[in-house]
């Protein structure tokens, strides 16, 4: 077990409960996709998991340690966060950006060493992206930026990588490339949590699915078990068909515009 979320509740200042009694465990090398409508609380849950927000109730355990007693640097040695959009102000090269993943392993005023740069380069090589090393990070395309951000997570040498909508803003080909890469990461032993707005991505990746509803509850199960037509219709407020495609060996989601407007 790498992460245990136990009875977690969260409210912002306005007191509306965004997360309510959320419970799940994540094993090493396993995968959880979190779905839910806009504003349900997916990013809030990821922020609690990465210790950026403190739950109002409940406990988060990282391996066998309670997370509330850990600082961000300690947590970052185990969990890497790949946010949706990251636009730095300075013109770092991609390699300098990837090497920032080494910060949790450096002392307060310590600069990255040659060994840290070697780890950052190896992360870019792992993702077949070494040609991006000298490109300014601010000049990368959306897909390239996502690759470099994943390389930073790998350079961090974390065991759990948390992705907030990793396919947002990417074209169809890059969406599938990033999903393949995420699947490969789990095959290499990383644990992964990601959010998505596409139930089809959940079918494509397999693993466990969590559906967050507007009452803050997280329903967890296997894709085929959780992603039922009635559930999707309730969550997204629109008709969705779940169809098994023999050639693909999996179900797909298809929406219809009939009766819309
Ligand atoms: N800092 C904040 N202070 C107060 N309320 C907030 C804050 N951040 C988010 N919220 C509210 O909490 C709720 C959950 O937001 P969150 O961003 O976690 O949802 P989400 O499921 O990630 O949404 P989306 O799919 O649209 O990205 C929303 O109603 C949002 O307005």
From TrEMBL:
Keyword Transport tagged: yes
Q: What range(s) does the ABC transporter domain occupy?
A: 3-239
Mind telling me which SUPFAM superfamilies this protein's record contains?
Answer: P-loop containing nucleoside triphosphate hydrolases
One GO molecular-function entry: ATP hydrolysis activity
Q: Name one Pfam family in it.
A: ABC_tran
SMART domains in the cross-refs: AAA (SM00382)
Keyword Nucleotide-binding part of the UniProt annotation: yes
| InterPro entries for the chain | AAA+_ATPase (IPR003593), ABC_transporter-like_ATP-bd (IPR003439), ABC_transporter-like_CS (IPR017871), Metal_Ion_Import_ABC (IPR050153), P-loop_NTPase (IPR027417)
Q: Which UniProt keywords apply?
A: ATP-binding, Nucleotide-binding, Transport
Its protein name is ABC transporter ATP-binding protein
Species, as recorded: Aminipila butyrica
